[in-house]
Write a structure and sequence with these properties.
Blueprint lengths: L1 E4 L14 H13 L5 E4 L12 H17 L4 E4 L3 H9 L4 E4 L7 H9 L2 E5 L22 H18 L7 E4 L8 H9 L1 H8 L4 E2 L20 H13 L4 E2 L4 H15 L2
C-alpha cells in the first residue's frame, strides 16, 4: 500500500504532494514502483495534527482519487469521515482506511452500502490529543497485544453490526498511535500473536515513524529507510497481509529478494 498524502503537514512528506499535479505524479510514481494499493489522504494524522473538515479533505483528494482510479489503481481513502468516504467510494475507491477505530459509526454504514473493504486501525483518542515522538505513558498498557486486540475487536464488532462484510475487514494495530516507542516496538515484535488472534488480514504501517529512532536517535523521517524496511520484512514474515509504506520500490525489492533467497 503506497502512501499519497495530499496534505501540507504530514509528518514525513507534508507539502510535497499537496499541489494537484504533484499528487497525480505521486500516483504515477507509486504505480510504477509496484504498489498494489494507493492510500490517498487529505488529513494529516500525525500527533498534534488539527482536524480537517470533510469539505476541505474532498477539495484536496477527490480529483486525485478519480485520477488514480482512471489509471487502474486499487484506491484506499485514508479518512475517518463518513462524508469523505462516501464521496470517494462513489468515484471508484474500494477501501477505506480508518485510523480512528470507527470513531464515526456512520462510516461503517457507508462502507457496508458500497461493499467496500475497511481497514480498521487501533488507537485511543484523536491525533490532536496525542503527544509527539512516541510519548505515551509507560504504564498505559498491561499487555499491549491483549489490550490492542480486545479494543480492536470491540470496534470490529460494531462495524460488522453496521453491515461491513467480515471478508472486507482488515486489522491495523496502529503503530505509533497512542503508543510509546517501546510499546510500538513490542507490538511489532509480537505481530505474529496479533495475526493469529484477530482472524482477519492485518495491515502494518511502520514506515518512517518516530518509534524507529530507537535504533538511530535523531534520524529524521527521510533517514529511516533502513529501519522501515527491516520493520516491513519482519511484518511480512509474521504474516502481515498489507504493508503501508512511503518507499514502495525499496520495500518490494527487500521482500522479493528475501522470498527468493528463503525459497518462498
Amino acid at each position: 500500500m503506497g502512501i499519497c498524502n495530499v496534505t501540507p503537514d504530514s509528518f514525513s512528506d507534508g507539502g510535497r504532494f499537496f499541489a494537484p499535479e504533484a499528487a497525480r505524479a505521486r500516483v504515477d510514481e507509486l504505480l510504477a514502483e509496484g504498489a498494489d494499493l494507493i492510500d490517498i489522504g487529505g488529513e494529516s494524522t500525525r500527533p498534534g495534527a488539527a482536524p480537517v473538515s470533510a469539505g476541505d479533505q474532498l477539495v484536496r483528494i477527490l480529483e486525485v482519487v478519480r485520477y488514480a482510479v482512471a489509471a487502474g489503481a486499487c484506491v484506499s481513502v485514508d479518512t475517518a469521515s463518513a462524508e469523505v468516504a462516501a464521496a470517494c467510494l462513489d468515484q471508484g475507491a474500494c477501501v477505506v482506511n480508518d485510523v480512528s477505530c470507527l470513531r464515526e459509526p456512520a462510516l461503517g454504514g457507508v462502507v457496508a452500502r458500497a461493499g467496500a473493504a475497511l481497514v480498521l486501525m487501533h488507537t485511543r483518542g484523536r491525533p490532536l490529543e496525542m503527544a509527539g515522538f512516541g510519548a505515551y505513558p509507560t504504564d498505559g498498557y498491561e499487555d499491549i497485544v491483549r489490550e490492542v486486540c480486545s479494543e480492536w475487536r470491540a470496534a470490529a464488532k460494531q462495524a460488522l453490526s453496521l453491515g461491513v462484510s467480515p471478508d472486507g475487514l482488515v486489522m491495523d494495530p496502529g503503530l505509533g498511535f497512542a503508543k510509546s516507542a517501546p510499546q510500538s516496538t513490542d507490538l511489532l515484535a509480537r505481530l505474529r500473536e496479533i495475526v493469529d488472534a484477530v482472524g482477519v488480514p492485518v495491515a502494518v504501517g511502520a514506515s518512517r515513524k518516530s518509534f524507529l529512532t530507537t535504533v538511530d536517535p535523531g534520524a529524521v523521517p527521510e533517514e529511516r529507510l533502513g529501519a522501515s524496511i527491516a520493520a516491513a520484512l519482519h511484518a511480512a514474515r509474521a504474516g502481515a497481509a498489507i504493508l503501508r509504506v512511503h518507499d514502495v520500490r525499496a520495500t518490494r525489492q527487500a521482500i522479493d529478494l528475501a522470498r527468493r533467497v528463503e525459497g518462498k
